[in-house]
Amino acid sequence: MSIIVTILVLSILILVHEWGHFIVARRVGIPVYEFSLGFGYRLLHYKKNGVVYSLRIFPIGGFVQMAGEQPDDMENPEGFNNRTPLEKMRVAFAGPFMNFVLAVLLFIYSYAFIGVPTPVKEVVIGGLIADQPAAAAGLKENDQGLAVNGKTVSNWNEFTDIIKESNQKPLHLKIDRDGNIIYKTVTPQKTKQSPDPKIGAYSKVNYEKQGIITSIKFGFVRTYDFTVLMVQSLGMLFSGEASTSDLAGPVGITMMVGEAAQGGMLYLLAFTAFLSINLGVLNLLPIPALDGSRIMFGIVEAIRRKPIAPEKEGFIHWIGFMFLMLLIVLVTYNDIVRLIKG
After folding, report:
1. Is it the case that residue 274 has pLDDT exceeding 90?
2. Which among 131, 119, 272 has a CA at the least distance from the CA of 202?
């Protein structure tokens, strides 16, 4: 199920990204031959107004094939290769920009139609993580904790403090389940993700919907905050404070999407927005084969007042593409190692 959800999430992000390139290319007058979701063998396609819309066998990716990009089409006067530097930069920037727009819209929708999660006052379990101590002990959603080791607990923070201070020793819980008093024993455990003992349960929350003005404000603020966080993380990677072993590839993203989906629609939408921001920021990096490099080539062309030779630019993009493929192999290897190690 996680794989299906991940494919849907990534397909939406890629579709929005490529739609940005597509709509601006058409607006500035560049003919578009194909709008594709995915790579490889073409599964489905239809043609409308001269554009082939296709779905290909490998869904992780997509492209907009514009005039003036292929070696046999470089002389097309309306093609991308023969547009002004500003037009080239507009087309290149449109993809990442749409990813930021999507993130803003997802946050606005979350705040306006789902709401801000607010924990209930009592110690009520809102959900369980599979294969964690709480689920193994037989705790269920909507169970209300009354006491731990004979001591009354009145709120979730108090409950989690007891778990943290347990030293992974068994905790004897007094539970109210649908008006019936039952007793359960759960043993907190530490995980690689957290140095503190946990039982794998999270608090029940109420969702408070926000007004549209507040939701719009929060949408932009959250997008800005996540963008700053992403840029800071990249800075740590380049400065050596973080390593490539901290990067996640397709396998890691699939696992994280699955975990977000377990938390409910709000968390899945928030994580989708975060992934969209990641896609936007990464594509703006001046790495050959990414949109950022096309923007840089446009700036250089504007300064030189003449474009870089197509064969040279194509070779640089090829080098960048090979670098990205090696990076994907590396992060996928890291994902598999983390998966094997648990």
Report:
1. yes
2. 119
